[in-house]
Amino acid sequence: MTPKTEPDVSFAKYHKLFITGKASYGDYFDNLLSWYEHRNDSNVLFFTYEQLKKDTDAWTLKIADFLGEDYGNKLRKDPDLLRKVVSASSLKNMQGVFNEQMATLMKDLVNLPPEKAIKSLEVYRDIVNKSVPTHDSDGFVRKGVVGDWKAHFTADQIRETKAWIAEKTKGSDVMDLWKDVDLP
After folding, report:
1. What InterPro entries does the entry give (predicted)?
2. DSSP per-residue string spanning 124-177
3. How far is residue 39 from each of residues 18, 50, 62, 164, 182, measured CA to CA in Å?
4. Listed residue (146, 45, 135) closest to 91, CA to CA
């Protein structure tokens, strides 16, 4: 995610940044694994985009239940309200909300003066301030297509990615999250 003034960066360059933890927001697996170990904690709701995409209504209800049983019950009793929530959180709507505003919002949040800083965002300060420009066209919320990796990865990138995943996830069953998804 970069300003519109930055030139496009090839997928090959982005891929290298991603598997070395230098893409925006740091190393994917460092982030994922830090939360994965808490997936069964009562105050954590852990799911994948692929699960959400496969059954959006069911996961919307699970999210509502997680936030409070009354929220889930209200959505179950009012199908029109559930439709509105699903529509408001749709990919198309999120693209409209976030693609233009996210870069500015994150920079503003992590650069608040200390007395106004949000402590939980401190982890993002270096990531946001040192992020490497990667594109100017796709925005923060992209296509949302499960399996779109096939349109971008070369055979060499698939091999590199598989090796990186194996190294980063050794000793963990985290990749079971995607056992039913067509990954390389």
Report:
1. P-loop_NTPase (IPR027417), Sulfotransferase_dom (IPR000863)
2. GHHHHHTPPP--SSS-SS----TTGGGGT--HHHHHHHHHHHHHHHTT--GGGG
3. 24, 16, 14, 23, 23
4. 146
Model pTM score: 0.71
CATH of the domain at 78: 3.40.50.300
Does residue 184 lie within any of the structural domains? no
Answer yes or no: is 2 within a domain: no
- Range of 103's domain? 11-178
pLDDT tens series, the chain, 184 aa: 444 444 567 889 989 999 999 887 789 999 999 999 999 999 999 999 999 999 999 999 999 999 999 999 999 999 999 999 999 998 888 777 776 666 677 677 777 777 776 665 665 666 656 655 555 555 656 677 788 888 889 999 999 999 999 999 999 999 999 998 877 7
Does some domain include residue 112? Answer: yes
Residue 45 sits at φ, ψ, to 5 deg, of: -110, 115
**How far is 166 from 155, CA to CA, in rounded Å?**
17
Q: How many domains does the chain have?
A: 1
